[in-house]
Predict the structure.
Amino acid sequence: MKRHLALLALVLFPALAICEPAKESEKTAAAPKVRLKTSLGDIVLELNPAKAPVTVENFLGYVKKKHYNGTVFHRVIDGFMIQGGGFALTDGKLVEKTSGKGIKNESQNGLKNERGTIAMARTNDPDSATAQFFINVADNAMLNHPSNGGYAVFGKVVEGMDVVDKIKAVKTGASKLSMRHPATGEVLEMPSQDVPAANVVITSATIE
């Protein structure tokens, strides 16, 4: 009887072991990718739902609603980052689009603000990120947790880093942005630095 049980174990356990690598490959394959078509070329992002589930779900929600279509990179700082996803051109002005509620800050997920990673932009409130994001064009350790609560990284550029580098190099200067008051939604004209002189537009954002 014991011999029969031992043989049964040898038959079953190898079969289980064979299944495990397949599960791991499925997890890898399941990492969603988003293509940002911009006026300077395409950028493909690979997101990390395992490390940043709330942030990835939030970002994909905006993609599915086509929120990012027609938005611009409104803040560009060479040697630091390029920020977008919040403003669109309306009647010749950059006007902030309406977005949802802030999400939980996942900056303690172990992902670092390194060159080529994408993270969420926010206010001084760590849990205030909505739609705006930025792509790091350098290693920005000062943005990692615990500094100022940290900025949550949720993916990385896997194609089109040359396009990111084109965007970081555009001419910028002082301008005005039409921003929405977080409490009332009222649109206010606010001065802003590092605004591209010529708009760099995200024409579409789609899930690959």
